[in-house]
Design a protein that fits this description.
Layout: E1 4-8, H1 13-24, E2 28-35, H2 54-67, E3 71-75, H3 77-93, H4 100-119, E4 124-126, E5 132-136, E6 139-143, H5 161-165, E7 167-168, H6 176-185, H7 189-192, H8 208-215, H9 219-222, E8 226-229, E9 235-239, E10 262-267, E11 272-276, E12 282-288, E13 290-293, H10 296-301, E14 304-308, E15 316-323, E16 326-336, E17 343-348, E18 351-357
Parallel strand pairs: 1-2, 1-4, 2-3, 4-7, 8-11
Antiparallel strand pairs: 5-6, 6-18, 8-9, 10-11, 12-16, 13-18, 14-15, 14-17, 15-16, 17-18
Helix pairs in contact: 1-6, 3-4
Length: 359
């Protein structure tokens, strides 16, 4: 045996094929699936989907049984609520746009899995993420996976080196289509055709506005009408509550200006939403006061990086300036739609060298 691995299993195709590959490579597996939220709510009238549902948990358990290794269910609902959902709500109430996966990965998924791995005597943990781990100058880094369309390194920038040292990503060198084919070849035809899970696991209908309305006390007092203003401060009309808007939004503004208008800024304290033309969303810099680098000295000596400001955007050339208690990122060319609350992630030679939450 190569070693003992705690395999994070969602019931989906990626983690399932990862388990098959590791088993074939000679690893001893123990499966683990986490329950992170109460999916069954009287207020939820939509069909459940994605990870963390009872169906997906049982699918993971049945797969582990079929492959012949033990499986555990971790009840992480309380921790998930305190660390991820509360942060998600708080960010929106402060006019920012959060990405809960970035917070969940280090504190819930890796944090709790590594605790369990230690208790079970496992050498590694493994997940079905599309990412790669490499070593460079005595440090461990994330690197882009083979499948650029599925690459998930952007969401993993908060993982510490100690976490990466004990992590296996079996899908690093495979495309999604190859993964589907491998499932079918191993007799899992139905699994090979399984659809993708949703983006936010605890918002089953992808309506974050409804989620906030159901989970924030006196939400109607928080999300109340206020002023649309232009970039000079002139009042343009009334918005329907600042939490209903995100930077770059054009549709659903319910205001006619004769030309397309976009959300350029949100001020929760003043209850204003700033609108502007599309070109007013271009900026040459951003700042972050909550950041992390694998090797900060490397960035201080050579601050040139490729910076990525959202999951689906291409990294662009930039330079990092270290200031008192924060960093400033200066882009070679202006970037569009910088959004407070989202992450900016930095690469050097295809190594993920750090990241930060956009202020």
């Amino acid at each position: 045996m190569k070693g003992k691995v705690l395999m994070a299993m969602s019931g989906g195709i990626d983690s399932s094929v990862s388990a098959m590959l590791l088993q074939e490579q000679g690893y001893e597996l123990i499966g683990a699936t986490y329950r992170t939220w109460d999916s069954m709510k009287e207020s939820c009238l939509v069909k459940e989907k994605g990870c963390c549902t009872i169906d997906s948990i049982m699918e993971a358990k049945h797969l582990a049984e079929r492959l012949g290794f033990e499986h555990h269910i971790l009840d992480l609902r309380e921790d998930f609520h305190d660390l991820v959902i509360r942060n998600f709500i708080d960010e929106y109430l402060h006019g920012r746009t959060p990405n809960p996966c970035v917070v969940c990965n280090p504190f819930i998924k890796w944090g709790k899995l590594l605790e369990m791995a230690r208790s079970l005597g496992c050498d590694y943990i493994a997940t079905g993420h599309y990412a790669k781990i490499v070593s460079h100058s005595n440090h461990f880094y994330l690197q882009h996976a083979k499948d650029n369309t599925k690459d998930q390194t952007y969401f993993l920038w908060l993982l510490q080196e100690e976490m990466l040292k004990r992590t296996l990503f079996p899908l690093a060198d495979f495309t999604k289509e190859e993964v589907r084919r491998m499932a079918a070849e191993r007799g899992f035809e139905q699994l090979s055709k399984k659809s993708e899970s949703q983006e936010i696991c605890f918002v089953p209908d992808d309506d974050y506005r409804r989620f906030l309305a159901e989970n924030v006390t006196d939400y109607d007092k928080v999300c109340r009408p206020g002023d649309f203003i232009d970039t000079s401060g002139k009042v343009l009309g009334q918005h329907q509550g600042f939490t209903n808007y995100t930077i770059g939004q054009r549709k659903g503004l319910r205001i006619a200006m004769g030309v397309p208008m976009y959300v350029c800024g949100i001020d929760a304290e003043k209850n204003t939403v700033m609108l502007g033309h599309r070109d007013e969303l271009y900026t040459s810099s951003l700042e972050s006061s909550n950041y992390r680098f694998t090797n900060e000295s490397e960035l201080r000596e050579s601050p040139e990086v490729m910076a990525q400001i959202r999951y689906r955007s291409a990294p662009t050339k930039a330079k990092i300036e270290f200031l008192e208690g924060k960093i400033r990122v200066l882009f070679d060319e202006p970037v569009w739609g910088v959004t407070p609350g989202q992450s900016v992630v930095f690469f050097k030679d295809n190594r993920l060298v750090g990241g930060g939450f956009i202020s």
